[in-house]
């Protein structure tokens, strides 16, 4: 066997490694897309949470400003 010749078992191992790398690269790309989608959803939910928090605090302030409870006029 010369330097440029590769044994069949070594060639098979290299081929399997190349297939594995290609598969992993595809999976990483798919997962990256999923993470990007999840991040977008997290940002949307964070924005909604901020708006709801502001609204809640505003309503809470309004409730504190309510007039004191007094006896009804018919007493």
Q: Kindly, what is the distance between the CA atoms of the first and last residues, rounded to a whole number of angstroms?
A: 113 Å
What's the total helix number?
A: 1
- SS content category: mainly alpha
Query: How many separate domains?
Result: 1
Task: Describe the protein.
It contains 1 helix and no strands. With 75 residues, it is mainly alpha-helical. It has one domain (10-64). The termini are far apart.
How does the SSE layout of this entry go?
Layout: H1 8-64
Summarize the structure in short.
The protein is an all-alpha fold and 75 residues long. The protein has one helix spanning 8-64. It has one domain.
List keywords for this structure.
single chain; 75 residues; mainly alpha
